[in-house]
Structures are given as C-alpha cells and as structure tokens.
Amino acid sequence: MAAVLAAVIVVGVGVFIFLSFQPGRSSGQTTAMTTHQTTAGSSVIALTLYLNDYGYNSSRGGPRIQAYVGDLIRIRLIGNGSGPIVHDFTLDEGSPSPYSIKSERLRRGQEQIIEFIANHPGVYSYYCSVRGFAGPSHRDRGQEGIIEILQRT
Hints:
- The chain has strands at residues 4-11, 14-21, 34-37, 43-52, 55-56, 65-68, 72-79, 90-91, 101-102, 111-117, 122-127, 144-150.
- It is an all-beta fold.
- The chain has a single domain (27-150), classed as Sandwich (Immunoglobulin-like), CATH 2.60.40.420.
- Strands 3, 4, 5, 7 and 10 form a 5-stranded mixed sheet that branches. The protein has a 3-stranded mixed sheet with strand order 6-12-11, with no helix packed on it.
C-alpha cells in the first residue's frame, strides 16, 4: 500500500495542505491539486508531478493544470523514470508561452520545487525537453501536458 505524504505550508496569513501519493506505482498515482485563497484575492495552486517515462503521473502526457492570473503555482517535481533516464518540466517559448521556466533534469528519486506567478493568461503546453542522440524527443513521445491561465473576473 502506498503511503500518503502530507505537508502543511504557511503562506502569508493562509495555510494550504499539499497531498500526493508515493511514486513507483503505475496505477493509482494521482495528482492532488490544492488551492488556497489568500487575502489579496489570488490563490496558491500546489501539485506534484511524477516525471515518468514519456509522461507525467503515470499517464501519457500529463494532468491539466488550471490557475488564474495572479495565482502562485507551486509544482513539486519527482523523478520517477526507469534506469538512467532523466526528465524535466519546461514551460517556455517552445510551448509556446511567454514564460521561461525549466527545471533541472531529474533522475528517479530526485526532487525539485518550482514556483512562478501566473501572470500571462492563455493555454500553453508544458513538456519534457530531453532529447536523445537519435529518435524522437520525450515531448514527441507524449510527455506533454496543458496549463491554462484564466483571467480573474
């Protein structure tokens, strides 16, 4: 049985809870995306992405991430590929997007947290930018998801 990880993080005057499941299971691995409203009207969006072979969170592609302009997006990345394979998280001009976000290349068991403010509305693709010496890139093999930044009304 997979153990559940829980962390409580204090942001300003608010608290949000971040939940995820342990890596290593090809089924049942879920993305718990939490949102906490702050006093300024923006939110903190927190989630975990497992960087699997040619997908995120044991899926082909990755989960859809949705936020509003002004939200802080916090993504915990966990390398979960097989063997020596590395993966990353990229949201940049290749998405195409106005963001310039790229994680380290992570091996199985390595972790990194990335944060950014969702200040450009639109629908963009996040992807793994790793390319081998020959053959298709990880993105070409399906390691790509959608992030949607909506205008706050």
